[in-house]
Amino acid sequence: METQLKKNSQDRVAEINRLFLFTDEDKYFFNQIVDQTAKIFNVPISMISILGADEQRFISKKGISADGTPLSIAFCAHTILNKDVFIVNDAQNHSLFKNNPLVTGDPHVRFYAGVSIISKKNVPLGALCVIDHVARNISPHEIHFLETTSQLLSNVIENRARDIKRKRRLLNIYRKRMVEASKMASLGEMASGIAHEVNNPLSIISAKVYQTKTILKNSDININKANECLSAVDDTVFRIANIVKGLKRFARKSTQDPHSLVTISQIVDETLAFCKHRLLTKSIRLDIQIDEEYLITCNPTGISQVLINLMNNAIDAIKGLDEKWIELKITKVNGRLIISLRDSGKGIPQAIVEKIMNPFFTTKPIGHGTGLGLSISKGIIEDHGGRLFYNQGSPHTEFIIELPETVFPATLMTA
To answer: Disulfide: which of 100, 160, 183, 339 matches 401 by Cβ 3.0-4.6 Å?
Structure first.
């Protein structure tokens, strides 16, 4: 038996992973099936089990406290090797089971009847079974009930798994759209700052062009001075180009972007390009602490979007305070990149902390926030295999991003 179970375990586990994606509503349905089966058979124990590589797990049960058993002693392991209902009328007098610990000890199995739950790919996943503490026989009517109920379970499991996967695909599409909507909302908040960042260098270009024209009008042309002016124009154009490039990169759809290797300073610089004007106009001091330059594999636009959202939230929260500062600190701990954004606020009330990551929850006035920012930011970080959380142990308002990607000093790339 063990050899045959091991042989089929890979297909069985793959099917279980494909199909068993249940909600609370599904668990209620399984519990109803188990309760009804126990009543029809008038037995104290009934269950639906699934069989993994080494153990059976009960996804619904009645009359038993255990959540599963090792596969080596499971009656259901024998059931899935049979096409028909597997029946043990008296386990104490059965050569295969009389010394089984489930017979000699709790739950003291004496009678067992089980039928396989089979996927549409003809792979047995587990069993629906009934157990009694006394020896007994089973009627044709009871056998038919087990067979038809197992077919019902197989169909329900297949259909529910398909429905859940479809809903998850739709939710994923919706979340990606919300990411883009949140991004556009952030750009709207920063529009005046972006305009300022472009207008300033344009003013420099205008002044330098005027100065160059004046130089060229003189009969005694100062070539060096003219070159200085043109170099300044060139540098300023490059600065505008970088701002526009960053803006385009941030604004475009980036949820499907592959991860790339970038320095953490590059991400911080792009973030500050969007936030710098708001910080200046609100007279907020920004302190950046990066203990070492690191390279990180990530979606740079996604990480930048999260930082922009946290920065905007911090600015909105402290702009009316007497003491206004934001601290961005980046360190590496055990190969993980830790990004801490802390502001001069005195923290967030516990009642709000419990809801703050929920979609559409916001403490901002109507028209000043969608309530999607932190929820989407949390999703972006989780897509990187990391986590975003509020540090309740800090005396000030602090959010921490923890990224588990392989992080290493940038100096190693040039060594």
So the answer is: 339
